[in-house]
Write a structure and sequence with these properties.
alpha/beta; TIM Barrel; two-stranded antiparallel ribbon; globular; eight-stranded parallel barrel
């Protein structure tokens, strides 16, 4: 397996120079990068940086709402995804990672019907360009592809070899879904993995329950879970990686660094990425 990271964590602390990110990733012995939306889509430059530093681009990630109520917003995000499909095609990058989108005024059933209409042209475009769309399973990013039930429904409607999962186990934890079983159940659809963990803060959960923040908008007072780097949360990474191996997965694990403990400065973010790389490297 290869270990990489998403550029978002470094972009958040002001590092938008993509060559600086490539250079640092090479120096710290990462294998690949996942390019976030803050990085300009300059194909020739990205091609030269891949060759210069020997780091492969795993995916272009663009988690935006393609089912937004506003038609212009939908079109904007659809076009941005197609731009990334074009870039992936030219750079021989396998994946473009997105969320399904979600109209928050509609039910999940209504959104599913909307998805059938709006997503079909995007998938057809990806198939034409020989690029695979990887659906990330974050519930907070305008998304209905958040559970095994929804994955089955989506893959049944879109039975394409150019559609799969960017598997993020951290969200399954706070949704109380078994991430280890999901790996085995969807082994043929996992494109690559996001390395992120979740900490459950039981004292806050006992006080607030799971709905208070949604009803009264009490975050962070009732924030009963938070993203953590692997090893600082609920996931048993040895079990998770064992299941990946047993499922025949030998692809990329990209660190998605959203851990507030290891954030706030370039130094802390870089330290968090290095700690996670070392932690995972000891298991693969």
């Amino acid at each position: 397996m290869k270990i990489g990271f998403i550029t978002n964590s470094l972009s958040r602390v002001g590092i938008d120079n993509i060559e600086e990110i490539f250079k640092w990733g090479k120096e710290k012995e990462f294998n690949c990068l996942e390019i976030g939306p803050a990085i300009p889509l300059k194909v020739e430059r990205l091609q030269k940086l891949q060759e210069k530093y020997g780091l492969q681009i795993t995916s272009f990630i663009y988690m935006r709402n393609i089912l937004a109520r506003d038609r212009k917003e939908r079109e904007l995000h659809t076009n941005k995804i197609k731009e990334r499909i074009d870039a992936a095609n030219r750079l021989n990058v396998k994946y473009v990672t997105i969320s399904t989108g979600r109209d928050e005024k509609k039910s999940y059933a209504e959104n599913f019907t909307l998805l059938e209409k709006e997503f079909a042209p995007i998938l057809k475009y990806a198939e034409k360009k020989n690029v695979t769309i990887a659906l990330e399973n974050c519930p907070e990013m305008w998304n209905i592809a958040i559970s095994p039930l929804m994955w089955r429904k989506i893959f049944k409607v879109f039975p394409s070899s150019n559609l799969g999962l960017c598997f993020d186990p951290s969200h399954l934890v706070w949704l109380r879904i078994n991430p280890y079983k999901a790996i085995l159940d969807f082994r043929d659809k996992i494109c690559y993995v996001h390395a992120k963990d979740t900490e459950i803060m039981k004292e806050k959960l006992d006080i607030c329950g799971i709905f208070t923040d949604q009803i009264y908008g009490e975050k962070p007072e009732c924030e009963w879970w938070r993203p953590r780097l692997p090893g600082w949360g609920e996931i048993n990474w040895r079990n998770l990686i064992t299941n990946l191996i047993e499922a025949g997965f030998d692809g990329t694990i990209n660190i998605e660094h959203e851990d507030s403990v290891w954030s706030g400065s370039k130094k802390k973010v870089e330290k968090g990425l290095i700690l996670t790389r070392n932690y995972l490297k000891g298991m693969i």
